[in-house]
Specification:
Helices cover 36% and strands 22% of the residues. It has helices at residues 47-65, 78-84, 96-105, 121-135, 179-183, 199-215, 227-240, 263-269, 271-279, 291-308, 320-331, and strands at residues 4-13, 18-28, 34-45, 70-75, 111-114, 141-144, 168-174, 220-223, 244-246, 313-318, 348-353, 359-366. It has eleven helices and twelve strands. The chain is of the alpha/beta class. The radius of gyration is 23 Å and the shape is elongated. It has two domains: 4-155, Ribonuclease H-like superfamily/Ribonuclease H (Nucleotidyltransferase, domain 5), CATH 3.30.420; 168-366, 3-Layer(aba) Sandwich (Rossmann fold), CATH 3.40.50.1240.
Length: 368
Amino acid sequence: MTSRVVIEADGGSRGNPGPASYGALLRDAGTGRVIVERGETIGVATNNVAEYAGLIAGLELYLEHADGAELEVRMDSKLVVEQMAGRWKVKHPSMIPLAERARRLAPRGTTWTWVPREQNKAADALANAALDSQRDGGSGLVTGPSAATPAPAPAPAKGWGGASGTATTFVLLRHGVTAATERKAFSGSGGTADPELTEAGREQARRAARWLADHGSIEAIVASPMRRTRETAAAAADVLGLDVEIDEGVVETAFGDWDGHTFAEIQEGWGDELTAWLADSSVAPPGGESMDAVHERVAEARDRLVTRYAGRTVLVVSHVTPIKMLVRLALDAPMGVIYRMELSPASITTVSWWPDGPASLRGFNIVP
């Protein structure tokens, strides 16, 4: 009998929630050869449910083909790995029975290892093959190979426009409402006020956190340093069991003398300056920051975060303008597009950045 084996497992949905599947394989740790593999559709589910389904399927393959061998589980889901290792709590009701079932199946002494997505392509390929089979009228089940068959070389993941490689995904969350939000007042960085969330804003943040636990597969959290974004990020961190990193690059625009004033008040007190600001992205409010400067700052933050979290899914808790700038970057659109977007408080926008350049806008202004 093989003395040491590795489970590689993955799962995902097309739509999140949407048509979902898992992929799981059992590999001889010494030779690297695949002992058995399985991919199967599971109906409509979220990414997290599909990932747990992949883990459970992998553990069942282990018990059937290598029971008693030393076991390591490798997955690219930070959430599942950390929960199974006991370092993160399982808080979401839909995850609790899945985690309990996986714990019952896993042998004592199992090693839980997080790996980057590019190192989990075989399991991902099985999950996608199952969905493709069902789409094309097949059974939605993929099985094989024998113990003598080497692991297949999976095809590279493909994104919009033919982009290849493993995307880095930003799940962009706007903060919940503050008193300034409710007044529709400008509230930027460097101003005299740094408002906190209202009770309504805190409830919005909690709703967004619960939605992200079901849909996001979040592996890291980054937030603007302002109070309202830190509070919104803290709600997500509490549910997801992650720490929050602060990044100045995704802070709101500095509005200078206009900070704390509504658009109508600015129009009355700084009419000419407002007209110039709206007409030219290089113009800054008195004592503030131009849209061009914000765009450059956000682009630098994008590059920094894509490098730091390559191939992972990152929750970025930010503000209206930086989120719009990130969407503009993804679409390669002119500056004027930012004035044609509406971002609701605690809304979620998703952008993926591919290693060979292209980006794709995956979702916009979703309000849990």
